[in-house]
Amino acid sequence: MSTHHTGALPANPETATLEGKNKVLGFWLFLGAEVVLFGCLFATYIALRNSVPDGPTAQEIFKLKTVGWSTFILLTSSLTSVFAIIAMHRQKLGQLLGWLIVTVLFGLTFLGLEIYEFVEYVHEGHKFTTSAFSTSFYTLVGFHGAHVAFGVCWITLLIIQGFKKGLTVVTAPKFYVAGLYWHFIDLVWVFIFTVVYLMGKVGH
């Protein structure tokens, strides 16, 4: 694999150019919109979490062991993405791509556990249309899962681009904003774990 970069890069290559600065700024604005969207989904879930009629309740179906492992894996992936950005600032392309590959593998593992979790819930009668609670649960958690899947695909494409083009002031902002995105979905999961799973399991 090629570990070269084009010329000597500045200390913060992600904002070394006007285009890079605009990408980072634009992405922060995008994340602001995402916060509002997830906030609406959280508010809907909180309002409907006790609307279970004849369906199973959160206490009956949630398995904190599985969710705990999912949380550990996703938070660990956030750490590996930090290592990737540190490697980028040190202009170590090989280490950057290596840590991103590990991040993607952790993301895929998380998705696998989430799919397993959903299948278990469906078998226990907790389907999307079972109750207002189940609909709001699958919408919120599934929407987050879709974000993880998108992040996995995005970072995978950046890894391929990194192998082809190396580390430059053009590719650096892309790696950086992907790292921001990954931290964001990890942070959202912390709220999901707390609001949905912990509060659902210990009581309302």
UniProtKB/TrEMBL annotation:
Any single Pfam family the record assigns to this protein: COX3
Gene3D superfamilies membership: Cytochrome c oxidase, subunit III, four-helix bundle (1.20.120.80)
Membrane topology: Multi-pass membrane protein
Keywords, in A-Z order: Cell membrane, Membrane, Transmembrane, Transmembrane helix
Stored PROSITE patterns: COX3
InterPro entries for this protein: Cyt_c/ubiquinol_Oxase_su3, Cyt_c_oxidase-like_su3, Cyt_c_oxidase_su3-like_sf, Cyt_c_oxidase_su3_a-hlx, Ubiquinol_oxase_su3_dom
Residues of the Heme-copper oxidase subunit III family profile domain: 25-201
Subcellular location: Cell membrane
Transmembrane segments: 27-48, 69-90, 96-116, 137-160, 180-200
Family: Belongs to the cytochrome c oxidase subunit 3 family.
Protein name: Cytochrome (Ubi)quinol oxidase subunit III
Highest classification ranks of the organism: Bacteria, Bacillati, Bacillota, Bacilli, Bacillales
